[in-house]
Amino acid sequence: MPFQRYATSSSMVSAPASTGAGQGGWLLFDVEGAWFALDIGCLLEIAASVRIHTLPGRRPPCLLGVGNLRGKLVPCFSLALFFNVHPGRSASSEGGSRQRALIVAADGGPLVMVVDEVAGIFDLTEGVDGMLGAVGGGMTRYVRSVRRWRDLDVFLLDHQRLLAELLERLR
């Protein structure tokens, strides 16, 4: 399903899907000071926030709870906890919350991934490939490649593996 909406400061606006999978359209976002990119082909929308309700009982630490998305309960995950990324210099830690909820299409319905900041959609095909060995924490198998883009090392995510693993954590 193509990218449908993009959240600005507090509202949602429609945006056309100008680039898709394989055409260089990547959503660039920050998680605890580490920069990631997700192919926009799996992105449904970006929300300024989703109210998350915690779940009772045992659950994986990365599962924050469920959110109400237009009358449907959807699972909400913290990518910082999922990747075991240690707190760094992120937008949310510098005061003023820029946290966003990435709503992505997964088998069985949408799910939410909470990130610290969204930089925008970029064509990352022009960057220089970096060293995959630079990937640390628990994210190695979810990263396709590392791209040196502008002054950032950006981890290009394998969205199929990532979503499959997030769904597995629900079982």
Automatic annotation (TrEMBL):
<dbReference type="Pfam" id="PF01584">
    <property type="entry name" value="CheW"/>
</dbReference>
<protein>
    <recommendedName>
        <fullName>Chemotaxis protein CheW</fullName>
    </recommendedName>
</protein>
<dbReference type="GO" id="GO:0007165">
    <property type="term" value="P:signal transduction"/>
</dbReference>
<dbReference type="InterPro" id="IPR002545">
    <property type="entry name" value="CheW-lke_dom"/>
</dbReference>
<keyword id="KW-0963">Cytoplasm</keyword>
<feature type="domain" description="CheW-like">
    <location>
        <begin position="23"/>
        <end position="168"/>
    </location>
</feature>
<dbReference type="InterPro" id="IPR039315">
    <property type="entry name" value="CheW"/>
</dbReference>
<dbReference type="GO" id="GO:0005829">
    <property type="term" value="C:cytosol"/>
</dbReference>
<dbReference type="InterPro" id="IPR036061">
    <property type="entry name" value="CheW-like_dom_sf"/>
</dbReference>
<dbReference type="GO" id="GO:0006935">
    <property type="term" value="P:chemotaxis"/>
</dbReference>
